[in-house]
Amino acid sequence: MARRTATAPRPDASVPPARPAGASADAASRIAAWQRRAGRHGLPWQHTRDPYRIWLSEIMLQQTQAATVVPYYERFLALFPTVVDLADAPQDAVLRAWAGLGYYARARNLHRCAQALRDGHGGRFPATAAELARLPGIGPSTAAAIAAFAYGERAPILDGNVRRVLARYFAVEGDPAAARTAQRLWDHARALLDAAPAGLDMAAYTQGQMDLGATICTRTRPDCARCPLAPDCQARIQGRQDELPAPRTRRAQPLRHCWMLIAECEGRVLLERRPDAGLWGGLWTLPQFESAEALAAARDALPAGEAPQALAAFDHVFTHFRLRIQPCRLRLAGAAPAPDGADRAWAPLAQLDAYGMPAPVARLLAGLYADTPPPR
């Protein structure tokens, strides 16, 4: 049930809109009936009309698989039971609860959106997709999903799984992420709803599209024999299930480098908070440098007690690049210098879990201190 936020592109006035192929009048009903019979029903964000829980799951499921999301979702709700609780929480607490899910702008936007709901809507979610889409971090597909699940609104969605289902069902050519192809897919999504009966179960239909893409109409080896859309699916009829949707155009992944300083003193390690904008925005991480020379200058300014130790470099993969991290460990002599500013802290090794850190940094420190007694 991993879901991605899809952005509805603005129509190009110079190009006539593509006419969607005639959608079967019962296609949407077949999807809803299939979901009720064979879809997934045991995920913790299902069987609720609470827009807060639905919104939280939709944001977490963007570019993240359901199995990964479940423990984060449950922990998040335990910490922030309502949207006002989330709005009132410090950003550090929100980022700490999010740490490990990645795409941290989602967490910052989640917090901003909660504050906007508290301050401008009395802590209540708007009841239409159009109003929901005006809130921070909520795109048109996410807004439509919330409106469908919480309020039964007839609004089309277009997350990553649904793009694949529609691209195959209507035999849509082109990269689904390209603006013109995405516009055609939005047209088809609306056409399916326009052709559906007035009494369509929107929760089952919306969930059914997601479930189809996640469990049946998968990226490879789609299970057409079990698909409710198989009788009139154009990709199946044409034998093009492996060709559609067209593979996304991918650029070569550049390799970037950074150097990190692990400065230890009196059972503590030096952390600094990243700026909100940019990589790992708002999270606590090790002091980070763009060159070995910059690292050496910062290291030499500290009262070293032992010779610095270069640890094994490792790569962390992001969507558009790989980051090669070179850690350097330094044990300091004497008392820890006072941190310069609120965005630096000497974190006790026994309390690192209290700091929201990027997954690779958390793993690095956990591995480093798992079998080593903290320095005293």
TrEMBL record:
Keywords of this entry: 4Fe-4S, DNA damage, DNA repair, Glycosidase, Hydrolase, Iron, Iron-sulfur, Metal-binding
Location of the HhH-GPD domain: 60-215
Reactions accelerated catalytically: Hydrolyzes free adenine bases from 7,8-dihydro-8-oxoguanine:adenine mismatched double-stranded DNA, leaving an apurinic site
Superkingdom per UniProt: Bacteria
Region of interest: Disordered: 1-26
EC number: 3.2.2.31
Biased composition (Low complexity): 1-11
Pfam families: HHH (PF00633), HhH-GPD (PF00730), NUDIX_4 (PF14815)
PROSITE patterns membership: ENDONUCLEASE_III_2 (PS01155)
Cofactor(s) needed by this chain: [4Fe-4S] cluster
Presence of the UniProt keyword Iron in the record: yes
GO molecular function: 4 iron, 4 sulfur cluster binding; 8-oxo-7,8-dihydroguanine DNA N-glycosylase activity; adenine/guanine mispair binding; metal ion binding; oxidized purine DNA binding; purine-specific mismatch base pair DNA N-glycosylase activity
Keyword Hydrolase: yes
InterPro entries cross-referenced by the UniProt entry: A/G_AdeGlyc_MutY, DNA_glycosylase, Endonuclease-III-like_CS2, HhH-GPD_domain, HhH_base_excis_C, HhH_motif, MIG/MutY, MutY_C
GO biological process terms held by the UniProt record: base-excision repair; mismatch repair
Record note on cofactor: Binds 1 [4Fe-4S] cluster.
Function, in words: Adenine glycosylase active on G-A mispairs. MutY also corrects error-prone DNA synthesis past GO lesions which are due to the oxidatively damaged form of guanine: 7,8-dihydro-8-oxoguanine (8-oxo-dGTP).
Family as reported in the entry's similarity comment: Belongs to the Nth/MutY family.
UniProt-recorded name of the protein: Adenine DNA glycosylase
Organism of derivation: Castellaniella defragrans
